[in-house]
Design a protein that fits this description.
The complex is a heterodimer of chains A (172) and B (293). Helices cover 30% and strands 13% of the residues of chain A. Chain A has 172 residues and is an alpha+beta fold. In chain A, strands 2-1-5-3-4 form a five-stranded mixed sheet, covered by helices on one side. Chain B folds into three domains: 7-53, 2-Layer Sandwich (Uridine Diphospho-n-acetylenolpyruvylglucosamine Reductase, domain 2), CATH 3.30.43.10; 63-173, Uridine Diphospho-n-acetylenolpyruvylglucosamine Reductase, domain 3 (2-Layer Sandwich); 180-292, CO dehydrogenase flavoprotein, C-terminal domain (Enolase-like, domain 1). Chain B has helices at residues 14-24, 37-43, 78-82, 87-90, 92-97, 104-107, 112-118, 124-131, 149-152, 229-235, 242-255, 266-292; strands at residues 7-9, 28-31, 50-53, 63-66, 69-73, 135-140, 143-148, 153-155, 158-159, 166-173, 180-188, 198-207, 210-219, 226-227. The chains are: A alpha+beta (172), B alpha+beta (293).
Chain lengths: 172, 293
């Protein structure tokens, strides 16, 4: 079945089997391997991509469902050599250890900041609650997102506030 | 994991979707957001010959109120409910339940109607719609059929829908003049994104200081979402006193049919039902009294 979609601003067309998962299309056909496969069971968020700006799990979507839609993968975050504020945030605040969850975490963070430019720690933890970091680097991930929010707002690159190591809460 | 091969159809109108279902019968499976169906396809627990993706059918999305009814389109996503602040006054239980479903990424794709039709006994919307006495509207080539929530859930992953029907809308009755109504949804889960160990949905309608009607739905403690009928009836016509609430909680716990599993023992889950019904009723009554002011 023929699909045409936009990925990181470029239009791509392909003839795919209906059963081809979006994550496999992105990794194997488009060779964009920044999108990872972790659990393959809708649990971990390593396969997160943005679908029309909203984070979704690409292991739980068919490629054919994305026909006509716009996707952003981690490769689409930077603008040429200029890093996205979230990427700078993760770099400067050490928001990663092994890096496996990082593309998903950064995409969720980028979408969060579009909707909510100045999120609280609680809001950040809520936003990343569908993404698992097995290095348990959540404290620095939250710091990195807060740092990114400041960078995005044009603030100085001051060190992020200390973030308490508390469990994420529920919705208000 | 790779699903078994299937034919994919993406109708762009409801009549077109219904025609495909008429043509393919139970060889076809309807897909909305796919957050329950795609995992089943990947595990090959489901292997339909045809997947009918109704995600591009217009007119099935959105929440609207009017004429004493709140209407939720079947393709309304969990996130749409979660972000609809207008529901705080109209039907707070919906906005309380939505963010407790799965995780934010799943809620960006998963739909109210898809979740109801999947009919997982651990799915959250079933208990909510039972507590609300909602009606589910099914379309088929023969026309529309309105199914009370209490008749919709027939067993694990089994509903009253026929193979040629599509769920298009959920209708929720609103409180009438001189009444005030509110609800609560409480969910015990081991971690964010987990299925419920126990979930409890309650809705009360108050008039003249008495409970005019109570609705109580239970998640993950039976072969389907359960309605705690005896507990509901025990409250009708009574003032919502601590004693009346404790009695209803005890009856709801008796209605639960949980099983021992990795999330807890049956006895533990029954007691969680009792405690949650008690807490839920207290908070629903307080909300309804607040709304009446």
């Amino acid at each position: 079945m023929k699909v045409t979609l936009t990925i990181n601003g470029l239009e791509r067309s392909a003839d795919v089997e209906p059963r081809l998962l979006l994550v496999d299309f992105i990794r194997s056909e488009l060779r964009l391997t920044g999108t990872h496969i972790g659990c393959d069971t809708t649990s971990c968020g390593a396969c997160t991509v943005l679908l029309d700006g909203e984070p979704v799990k690409s292991c739980t979507m068919l490629t054919v469902q994305a026909d006509g839609r716009a996707l952003t993968t981690v490769e689409g975050l930077a603008n040429g050599a200029e890093l996205h504020p979230v990427q700078t945030g993760f770099h400067e605040e050490h928001g990663l250890q092994c890096g496996f969850c990082t593309p998903g975490m950064m995409l969720v963070a980028a979408a969060l900041l579009e909707r909510n430019p100045d999120p609280t720690e609680r809001e950040i933890r809520w936003a990343i609650s569908g993404n698992v970091c097995r290095c348990t680097g959540y404290v620095n991930i939250v710091k990195a997102v807060r740092h990114a929010a400041r960078l995005r707002a044009g603030g100085a690159a001051e060190p992020a506030d200390e973030v308490a190591a508390v469990a994420p809460g529920g919705a208000e | 994991m790779v699903p078994a091969a299937f034919e994919y159809r993406a109708p762009t109108s409801l009549p077109e979707a219904l025609e495909l279902l008429r043509e393919h019968g139970d060889e076809a499976k309807v897909m909305a957001g796919g957050q329950s169906l795609i995992p089943l396809l990947k595990l090959r627990f489901a292997a339909p010959a045809v997947v009918v993706d109704i995600g591009r059918v217009p007119g099935l999305t959105g929440i609207s109120a009017g004429g004493g009814t709140l209407r939720v389109g079947a393709l309304t996503r969990h996130v749409d409910v979660e972000r609809d602040t207008g529901l705080d006054a109209l039907c707070p239980i919906l906005r309380e339940a939505a963010p407790q479903i799965a995780d934010p990424l799943v809620r960006n794709r998963g739909t109210v109607g898809g979740s109801l039709c999947h009919a997982d006994p651990a799915g959250d919307w079933g208990a909510v719609m039972l507590a609300l006495d909602a009606e589910l509207v099914a379309s088929s080539p023969a026309g529309e059929r309105v199914i009370p929530a209490a008749e919709f859930f027939q067993g694990p992953f089994t509903t009253a829908l026929r193979p040629d029907e599509v769920l298009t809308e959920v209708r929720i009755p609103a409180a009438g003049a001189g009444q005030s109504a509110a609800g609560a949804y409480l969910k015990l889960e081991r971690k964010v994104g987990d299925f419920a160990t126990v979930g409890v949905a309650v809705q009360v309608r108050l008039a003249n200081g008495e409970v005019e009607r109570a609705g109580i739905g239970l998640t993950a403690v039976g072969p389907s979402s359960l309605k705690a009928g005896a507990a509901e009836r025990s409250l009708a016509g009574r003032a919502p006193t601590d004693e009346a609430i404790a009695e209803a909680a005890r009856l709801a716990s008796e209605a639960a049919e949980p099983r021992d599993d990795i999330r807890g023992s049956a006895a533990y889950k029954k007691d969680v039902v009792r405690v949650f019904v008690q807490r839920g009723l207290r908070s629903a009554v307080a909300r309804a009294q607040e709304a009446a002011r």
